[in-house]
Specification:
Helices cover 31% and strands 15% of the residues. It has 313 residues and is α/β, with parallel strands linked by helices. α5 packs across α7. The longest helix is centred in the last third of the chain and has 18 residues. The model has no long low-confidence stretch (mean pLDDT 96).
């Protein structure tokens, strides 16, 4: 019988649907480590990323690694590649709540909800709106057009936003451009949304030059990884008012130290990487995907959300 290791947190959602699988339901990293080298299938997700990487490295017989995480930058990729391990990730599981989070951030920035709440805290009646921008018919650049980027575009369609998306794979669509085409056009957009995967290629893809090319009224929205944005350059851009502001759900490092200057930069929202957790259905979706992938794994069929370990997503 195929042996598997899965966190006990997901047990109630998965166990009724996985007959014939010999599962160890672990409750701690130490428990997972004890059986790691004996399992063929592993779902080792945990908040302690170094411990998770250690466990996966020790799982030398692992043929399929499943994860709810979309990014794999914290996995021992070289070891997984060398072993030929199939890796399936959580791409798309949280696309809906993340897209809603993006729109929430855009509306908060457009209407300056921070200033509105500040006036309430100070019992101060405002004489005019602190923010009067509109999402309606605004021009939006989405960098990274996977499941999340596509869901963001779909959600913004209700605002009749003019969407341009950046995608590595070319398609016959005038609104979708390639990775070499977006930088010369940065000055066109009211919103620049970063939803690309974290790879060596995307490290600091938004830096001083890109920020300088944006409109001075434009806002940057990052729901990808903090590593995609040069935070030193971003602080300088915010302080000089060369861009309108930034809504950051992800930063580097996480948690962001309390004395990091990014906290106090002007016109910024920092939301502690909550966009993917802003749902009650995340684990339900992850469980059902695992169950479907288990059927496909057993049947030797193509699985959902298989990671290309060479590309990093």
């Amino acid at each position: 019988m195929t042996k598997a290791a899965i966190a006990s947190l997901i047990r109630p959602l998965v166990e009724p649907h996985i007959d014939g699988l010999d599962v160890t339901w672990f409750e701690s990293g130490d428990q997972a480590m004890e059986i790691a080298d004996s399992v063929e299938i592993g779902w080792f997700d945990m908040y302690d990323k170094p411990k998770m990487a250690e466990i996966i490295t020790a799982a030398t017989k692992l043929k399929w690694l499943n994860s709810i995480y979309a990014g794999i930058d914290h996995f021992p990729v070289d070891a997984l590649r060398e072993r030929g391990t199939i890796v399936t990730n959580g791409t798309g599981i949280n696309a809906i709540p993340i897209a809603e989070y993006v729109v929430m951030g855009m509306l908060a920035a457009a209407k300056r909800v921070d200033k509105l709440l500040e006036s309430q805290t100070n019992s101060a009646w405002l004489s005019g709106p602190p923010g009067n921008a509109e999402l309606f018919e605004s021009k939006v650049l989405i960098i990274g057009y996977g499941a999340i980027g596509q869901q963001v575009a779909k959600t913004l369609s209700g605002f009749n936003a003019d969407i341009t998306a950046v995608r590595r794979t070319p398609v016959e669509d005038d609104s979708i451009i390639g990775p070499e085409e977006w930088r010369p056009r940065l000055g066109e957009f009211d919103w620049v949304i970063v939803a690309a995967p974290a790879t060596d290629e995307t490290q600091h893809m938004i830096g001083a030059d890109e920020l300088a090319a944006m409109k001075d009224s434009a806002w940057l929205v990052n729901v990808a990884r903090g590593s995609l944005v040069d935070q030193v350059a971003l602080i300088a851009a915010l302080e000089s008012k060369s861009i309108g502001g930034a809504f950051l759900d992800t930063v580097t490092p996480e948690p962001l130290p309390s004395d990091d200057p990014l906290w106090k930069a002007p016109n910024i929202f920092i939301t502690s990487h909550m966009s993917g957790n802003a749902t009650t259905r995340m684990f339900e979706r992850a469980a059902m995907r695992f169950v479907e992938n288990l059927k496909r794994y057993r049947a030797g069929e193509d699985m959902i959300s298989v990671v290309n370990l060479d590309l990093g997503y």
